[in-house]
Every structure is written in C-alpha cells, then in structure tokens.
Design goal:
By secondary structure, the chain is mainly alpha-helical. It has one domain. The protein has five helices and no strands. About 11% of the residues have low confidence.
C-alpha cells in the first residue's frame, strides 16, 4: 500500500523554520485541483482564478506530491483510504513529538482522538472530491 505524502504549509504550522518562511514539519495533505482531479464541478471562473492550480503550475514538486496522493487514493477502498490517512497522521504526530511541536491532541480536541477526527475529515474530503 502506498504512503500518502505531506507537504509544508507555513500558514497552519505549529513549528516554523528559524527564518519563518517554511513549516519545519510536513503538515499538510492535498490533492490536485482541476476538473479531472479533485474539483469535478469547477466552473470556468474557478479554473481561471484557482490559487491552488496556480501554485501547482509554479511549484512542480508540489504538483508531484498532490498527484502521488491522488493516485494512491483514487482506486482505494474505504479501508485502505483509512489506513493510508491514519499512517500519515501518525507520522505527523511522531514528527511533532520528535521536534517538540504541538498537535491537535494538545490543543483541547474533546470530540475524540486527533487521528480519528482528522482521518474522518480526510475521508469525507476525498468522498466530496469524487474519490469514493
């Protein structure tokens, strides 16, 4: 089973690099934008102004990560999706613990474990994007 890849997003990080320009921990999960991928109902206006699509064109390494995730999830059944997302979230938690960064469990999430809640959200996101 392939492993999902995380990328760095400094806007939502709990630990930045010393210069503050990047997340010190890969903290974001994404799928490629566009009608043929995760936005099947995108309008022509959406496609023209989509910031995600622009970033994917500017940063080919980001596009490669997003395509990897898309290809890993698009034919997976719900169990395999859950397993891949759970592994990705456990890796994130381990990276946070190793570097002394906070994660959801430390921010007062009372509705369940951070991994379970995030995994459900990721699967729902995949379902809305036409992955299952």
């Amino acid at each position: 089973m392939p492993k999902l890849k995380r990328s760095h997003d400094r806007k939502v990080t709990t630990l930045s690099t010393p210069n503050g320009k990047r997340s010190a921990i890969a903290n974001t999960f994404g799928l490629p934008s566009g009608k043929q991928y995760s936005c099947p109902y995108a309008t022509s206006i959406c496609e023209r102004i989509c910031y995600a699509g622009k970033l994917e064109k500017m940063y080919t390494s980001v596009r490669e990560v997003l395509l990897h995730n898309w290809n890993a999830l698009r034919n997976a059944d719900r169990y395999d999706m859950w397993a891949m997302i759970d592994t990705m979230l456990l890796d994130f938690k381990q990276d946070c613990d190793t570097k002394g960064a906070t994660h959801l469990a430390e921010e007062g999430n009372a509705s369940g474990s951070d991994t379970d809640v995030l995994a459900v959200n990721c699967i729902l996101r995949c379902n809305r994007r036409g992955l299952h």
